[in-house]
Specification:
This protein has helices at about 10-30, 40-55, 70-80, 100-105, 125, 145-155, 180-185, 190-200, 215-230, 240-245, 255-265, 280-290, 295-300, 305-320, 325-330, 335-345, 350-355; strands at about 1-5, 10, 60-65, 90-95, 130-135, 155-160, 165-170, 170-175, 200-205. By secondary structure, it is of the alpha/beta class. It has three domains: about 15-205, Rossmann fold, CATH 3.40.50.300; about 210-290, Helicase, Ruva Protein, domain 3; about 295-355, Homeodomain-like (Arc Repressor Mutant, subunit A), CATH 1.10.10.60. It is extended, with a radius of gyration of 29 Å. Bound molecules: adenosine-5'-triphosphate. GO terms for molecular function: ATP binding; DNA binding.
Length: about 350
Amino acid sequence: MLRNGYGNSWSASQLKIESSETRRLREEYSNAAFTGFIGKSPEILRVLNLAEKAAQVQSTVLICGESGTGKEVIAEGIHLAGERALGPMIKVNCSAIPETLLESELFGHEKGAFTGAIKNKLGKFELADKGTIFLDEIGEMDIRMQCKLLRVLQNKTFDRVGGENSICVDVRIIAATNQDMVSLIAKGEFRADLYYRLNVIPIYLPSLVQRKTDILLLAEHFLHKYAKVFNKSFSGFSEEAMRLLLQYNWPGNVRELQNIVERAVVLTDHSRIEASDLEFDSYNRIEKSKPNPIYQSIVQGELLTLEEYEKQIITAALDRFGSYTAAGKALGITHKTVAAKAQKYGINFEREARV
Ligand SMILES: Nc1ncnc2c1ncn2[C@@H]1O[C@H](COP(=O)(O)OP(=O)(O)OP(=O)(O)O)[C@@H](O)[C@H]1O
């Protein structure tokens, strides 16, 4: 007879059944681990290959990439494809929890440790025992907490807030960030020693525009998904709709694409998604239509008269192109008009040498 950590006793035959059932479940999880992660571009195949390798070991993984690129999906896949799949996966968004609460959130606290600590509380690390802890937005973690996390990585133990005994847990750490960690380190906002401890297996998730070949594949995937959810039926996207999807710059990456397709599925009355059904996020449309500093100065700064803007444009074009003819060609006016405007605005330009 054997006893597990909870004091239950198992006979040898039960253990055998358990282990074959466990093996079956683990295989099932492992086979399904990355199936929801859509993409066939070489960049994504590289990510999947790396993530599958990471799942086979216990090393710490740091997943970097812009918001909405699928960092959390990859972290879940690594957990499910590995030997901890049947254990818990505990997620902590390090930026969403106020600094003062994060320590007790991660490491737990003892009753009476601080005002309001009316009973013992298990921290996320204890809850993740035999499983994985996913530390999202790690770049936002307060610098004092970084020091405490480093200690956990070094010693594999920690103390509950107000606790006296060190606690040892068996947890695999996967961290993620959408920040440029190297520049955070350069600014002194992230500890280099913690970064190196976390960055044992780095996985970089490319933005959607860096893997344009996945856009239509993802769009089709979400179309099927939401058609099923909302019990509708579609024949696909029109040519024009596909062209728009490919042209857009996707600042919100896959999350934004998912939202736009969901919105189109819900709101359209067509049996095919048309360009007019695709409502791009207005915030991003503004970002996109903010082409240059002149736009910014008009929107946010001191407004100049139209003539003053014209003077700046003519001056800049002459500086850039070096002649009335070339500047006029670029601006779509004749060289005579450029010369006249230069004279009108008193722009100092040596006509003779540079017509
Ligand atoms: N390759 C993909 N295939 C299918 N769905 C995806 C893919 N990538 C992302 N998604 C979906 O997009 C949404 C955002 O993904 P996720 O939360 O993993 O991004 P993230 O990089 O962790 O974002 P953030 O940095 O903002 O936390 C989720 O709903 C996820 O299911």
